[in-house]
Amino acid sequence: MVNAGDMNGSGNLMDFLDEPFPDVGTYEDFHTIDWLREKSRDTDRHRKITSKSKESIWEFIKSLLDAWSGWVVMLLIGLKAGTLAGVIDLAVDWMTDLKEGVCLSAFWYSHEQCCWTSSETTFNDRDKCPQWQKWSELLVGQSEGASAYILNYFLYILWALCFAFLAVSLVRVFAPYACGSGIPEIKTILSGFIIRGYLGKWTLLIKTVTLVLVVSSGLSLGKEGPLVHVACCCGNFFSSLFSKYSKNEGKRREVLSAAAAAGVSVAFGAPIGGVLFSLEEVSYYFPLKTLWRSFFAALVAAFTLRSINPFGNSRLVLFYVEYHTPWYMAELFPFILLGVFGGLWGTLFIRCNIAWCRRRKTTRLGKYPVLEVIVITAITAIIAYPNPYTRRSTSELISELFNDCGALESSQLCDYINDPNMTRPVDDIPDRPAGPGVYTAMWQLALALVFKIVITIFTFGMKIPSGLFIPSMAVGAIAGRMVGIGVEQLAYHHHDWIIFRNWCRPGADCVTPGLYAMVGAAACLGGVTRMTVSLVVIMFELTGGLEYIVPLMAAAVTSKWVADAFGKEGIYEAHIHLNGYPFLDVKDEFTHRTLATDVMRPRRGEAPLSVLTQDSMTVEDVETLIKETDYNGFPVVVSKDSERLIGFAQRRELILAIKNARQRQDGVVSNSIVYFTEDPPELPPNSPHPLKLRRILNLSPFTVTDHTPMETVVDIFRKLGLRQCLVTRSGRLLGIITKKDVLRHMAQMANQDPESIMFN
């Protein structure tokens, strides 16, 4: 916006707008910000601070504080996000175990913590200790038998239903925006859309509490996606404490980009992956300065979580693993097959989930969100309890699937037939034939795979906090572990085959099934979200092994290629389009040969464009125009005859300007002339005082000619973040193109419903 503070008319004119007034420059709910305007306002603010800093020591100190405020906000976001993530992890650990039993020595201890403190725990039975009792032991004094199993089964379902009901009730009553993963909305907000309350204090509180409840209930969802929303709520709260960010929506979004990085940092213990996730997946505008600050916020968040040490293993995540066996070139084939599986699973999930969510929105099903959550929770708990791999929390399942089978592992997956004469080091156990425990685990994992694939489709999108990272990784990890065990047994029994002969001799440790689980997890997560670079870095930070980057890259790229063959949209973009948000994706390509004149309004047969004239309309005329239309702003022309463009005035600022003029000044009445010129118009002697509104006029609105290709117009909207663009010919106004018009035109060209774009 041009600063017209010095453009005063004569002294008796009512030019109150030379002083700022409340709410000018803000936006209404469910509207898009003007990035160019926000950038210009921040440049003006910075220039003013710099010039004032030379006047006195105090002003110089204020300029330093302004410069450092960004780093202070990042520090606060990192500390708060890390603390909340640690508290959530500890609470989830305890409440998940509460469904099965309780610690008698200290009820707030989880199963593992309870047995840590016990002096009667043996290594072989490290999950059993007298201090920890299942509900059947506590209530009827029995730990084995049919009656004990049925009682534990019933209480498992009851606890799950209680947690889920409490969660959905809190969301429904106190913070409706706390549902879902939050990433589609975060992406939309970072692109410049306003959703008031989505990052508010109530949303932060309720999302944190209900996230613990829903993850503990055993539903097929994760906490990693919602942690991004929680971190962005922290970012929004702290940015509101500094006027540099609270009064500029563009600057606020730089803070939110860094907060998203901190959220992924604490979700996966991957600070670098968090920064890349923010850059690749959620951010719309990501300058170099934001990259540094994102890195700092992610670092502080990871350090804070590490200090809390929620898992007691000095790691940031539950499923941290280290492998000791290198991978071989021949294994690239099964890795690529896992990538194909991940791409197919991603496509299947997106299509089925979007179809179910659309059905929820368009039928009576959407009117009963509490009932839906209760039914899905009951089905999940009833089916999950009999299978040990679905009964435990999904993070623990992934942890077990990722683990390498060492000499000290007691899992069914590690029930191999050992050679009694083996004298190998602990970390170098050769491939062995599978025992009965492995075969039992294989069919249980197959059932768990089918269950997870189906139930996740119906769970994601309900009116509760629900992340998708962990369920997707679980599907891939189950499939990967099964493939890994298959390859391992094939290599053991057929080591003389040509593909195994060179690298898998008898007695060697050739295949690591846990690595296949990790590659499968990356492939499925990539297939659903279409992440590539950030995904590989997150998985690499999880394992701490540089040598496994190539298998991860192969699986991630294959998964993206396969999924993209069926559709370019990831799950988050699909939900953005389902909700009708005005999100102009930088990945979308527009190759159609249409022109600006084909898209601009008014079209042929429509009413002429609503405009303001520079010095011939009264206050009443302007108020009538505002009342009769719902446009975000109005072009200002010399006159309705010439239609020579002068500038553009925002609707909200016109309303505020007239309201403030009526309140603060005598002489401004309904028939006062409104003028946008530098000098007042010539008026009859007895006419009321005119109202000068030049300061709210954007004198340099973005314009294109009517013959500009729409490919160029789309690029301009995408790269400059425009709200609207005026169409002219030889300086004469012809029409206007809004972001909504662009999105509807793109949908129409892609044979989609243009009316699905609901917001401006």
TrEMBL record:
Q: Which membrane topology describes this protein? A: Multi-pass membrane protein
Show the GO MF annotations.
antiporter activity; ATP binding; voltage-gated chloride channel activity
Its annotated compartments are: Endosome membrane; Membrane
Q: Which GO terms describe its cellular component?
A: early endosome; endosome membrane; Golgi apparatus; plasma membrane; synaptic vesicle
**Which InterPro entries does the UniProt record give?**
CBS_dom, CBS_dom_sf, Cl-channel_core, Cl_channel-4, ClC
Q: From the record, give the transmembrane residue ranges.
A: 68-92, 153-175, 195-215, 227-243, 255-279, 332-356, 368-385, 441-461, 468-487, 515-540
Q: Which SMART domains match?
A: CBS (SM00116)
Which UniProt keywords are listed?
A: Antiport, ATP-binding, CBS domain, Chloride, Endosome, Ion transport, Membrane, Nucleotide-binding, Repeat, Transmembrane, Transmembrane helix, Transport
Question: In this protein, which residues make up the domain named CBS?
Answer: 600-664, 697-755
Query: Its principal location?
Result: membrane
Family named by the database record? Belongs to the chloride channel (TC 2.A.49) family.
Q: How is this protein named in the record?
A: Chloride channel protein
Q: What is the lineage of its organism?
A: Eukaryota, Metazoa, Chordata, Craniata, Vertebrata
